[in-house]
Amino acid sequence: MDNWDKKIKKRIVLFIVWTAVTAWSAFWLYDYSISNIGFSPSQPVQFSHKAHIEKYGMKCIFCHYNAEKNEFSNIPSTHACMTCHVALRNESDLIKPLNLSQDRDSTLVWKRLYRLPDFVHFSHKAHLRVGIDCSSCHGSVELTDSLSQIRRLTMKQCLACHREPEKYIMPARDVSGIFVYPSKNKNKLVRVSDKAVSEPQFGKFKKQARESFHGIDMPCALTRGPENCSACHY
Ligand code: HEC
Ligand code: HEC
Ligand code: HEC
Ligand code: HEC
Ligand code: HEC
After folding, report:
1. Are 132 and 178 in contact (CB under 8 A)?
2. In this structure, what is the dihedral angle of CA atoms 154, 156, 157, 161, given to the nearest 10 degrees?
3. Alpha-carbon distance 214 to 208, whole Å?
4. pLDDT digits (tens, 9 = 90+) for 31-65
C-alpha cells in the first residue's frame, strides 16, 4: 500500500513538473513568435546600411527624408537610388534589380520590418522634433549590413519611454541628420554637429508655436510622452 502511494505521488509530481515546463515553453515560444525581434526578411535588393553610411557618411534623413516632416518615414524610391547608381556600380549583379525596376518603371517592393497594428497612431515627426535619435527605437542601423528588428513594438515599450523618457532616449546624433538646433539666422536649418550629444536635452528648447522652416517644425522642449489612450488610439 505504502509503495503504491509513493508511486502515485511521484507520478503527480512528475505530471505537475511536466505541465509547468510545457506551459512555460509554449508561452515563451508564443511570446517570442509575436515579438518579431530578429525579423530580417530577404529584400529585393541586398541593400547594406553600413556600406552607405559608414564610409560615405550619408545621413538617415538623406534617404528617409519624410521622417522629419510626416508621420511616416519613407523608403527611398528607385529613382533616388539611381541618382548615384546610374553611374556607380551599375554593372554589378547586386544593382540589377534596381536597373530592372528603373527600365520597367516598376516599384521595388521592400518588405517592412517595423509595423504597428492599424489601430495605433504613431508619428515620426512628433518624436524627431524633440531631438530623439532614430537609434532610440531602431538601434544602430548604421552598423548593420542586413537590417533586423531589434525592439518589440508593444504598448508597454511605448509607455515605458513616455513615463521615463530620460531613461530611454538617445539624443540626436550627427548620423541621423535631423534638424535640432534653431539657428540665430532664421532662414537656416542647423543640423546636429559632429560633436556627440551625450546629455538629455530636457528644457533645451522652448516650445515654438507652429513655426516651421521648409515644412519642418521647429525643435521644441522635450516633455514626457502622453499616456492617455486617445493619443495612440483613435
Ligand atoms: C549618394 C549616392 C548613393 C545613393 C543615393 C545610393 N547608393 Fe548604393 N552605393 C553607393 C556607394 C558609394 C556604394 C559602394 C559602397 C562600397 O562598397 O564601398 C554603393 C553600393 C551599393 C550596393 C552594392 C553594390 C556592389 O556591387 O557591391 C548596392 C546593392 C546598393 N548600393 C544599393 C542601393 C540602393 C537600393 C539604393 C537606394 C535605396 C542606393 N544604393 C542608393 C552610393 C549610393
Ligand atoms: C542610401 C539610403 C539610405 C540611408 C542613408 C539610410 N537608409 Fe534606412 N533604409 C533604406 C532602404 C532602401 C531600406 C529598405 C531595405 C531594408 O529594410 O534594408 C531601409 C530601411 C530602414 C528601416 C526599416 C524600415 C522597415 O520597417 O521596414 C529602418 C528602421 C531604417 N532604414 C533606418 C535608418 C536609419 C536609422 C538610418 C541612418 C542611420 C538609415 N536608415 C539610413 C535606405 C537608406
Ligand atoms: C520613438 C521611436 C522611433 C524613432 C525615434 C524613430 N522611429 Fe522609425 N519607426 C518607429 C515605429 C514605431 C515604426 C512603425 C510605424 C508604423 O507601423 O506605423 C517605425 C517605422 C519606420 C520605418 C518604416 C516606414 C514607416 O514609417 O512605417 C522607417 C523607414 C523608419 N521608421 C525610419 C526611421 C528613421 C530614419 C528615424 C530617425 C530619423 C526613425 N525611424 C526614428 C519608431 C521610431
Ligand atoms: C524613446 C522614447 C519614446 C518611445 C520608445 C516612444 N515615444 Fe512617443 N513620445 C516620446 C516623447 C518624449 C514624446 C513627447 C514629445 C513632445 O514633447 O512633443 C512622445 C509623444 C508621442 C505622441 C504625441 C505626439 C503628438 O503629436 O503630440 C504619440 C501619439 C506617441 N508618442 C506615440 C508613441 C507610440 C505609439 C510609441 C510606440 C510604438 C511611442 N510613442 C514610443 C518618447 C517616446
Ligand atoms: C503610447 C501609446 C499608447 C497609449 C497611450 C495607449 N496605447 Fe494601447 N496600444 C499601443 C500599441 C503600440 C499597441 C499595439 C501593441 C500591443 O498590442 O502591445 C496597443 C494595443 C492596445 C490594445 C490591444 C491589445 C492586444 O493585445 O491586441 C488595447 C485593448 C489597448 N492598447 C488599450 C489601451 C488603453 C485602454 C489605453 C489607455 C489607458 C491605451 N491603450 C493607451 C499604444 C498605446
Report:
1. no
2. 150
3. 15
4. 776 667 777 788 888 899 999 998 888 889 999 99
CA 124, CA 121: separation in Å to the nearest integer? 10
For 68, 174, 208, 214, the CA distances from 180, given in Å and listed in that order, are 11, 10, 13, 14
- Which long-range contacts link 75-84 to residues 24+ away (Cβ below 8 Å)? 75/110, 77/107, 78/102, 78/107, 78/108, 81/45
- Out of 74, 133, 137, mutate this one to test ligand 3's pocket (max ligand atoms within 8 Å of CB): namely 137
Q: How confident is the model at residue 87 (pLDDT cuts 50, 70, 90)?
A: confident
Kindly give the number of the ligand 5 atom that is closest to the alpha carbon of 225: 1
Matching residue, cell 517595423: 114
pLDDT for residue 89 is more than 80: yes
Shortest-distance Cα residue to atom 17 of ligand 2:
147
Higher pLDDT, 113 or 198: 113
pLDDT tens per residue, range 169-225:
887 888 888 876 655 665 665 665 544 444 445 455 555 555 676 677 777 777 788
C-alpha cell at 65: 527624408
Nearest CA to ligand 5 atom 3: 232
Please name the amino acid found at residue 181.
Y
- Nearest ligand 1 atom to alpha carbon 83: 5
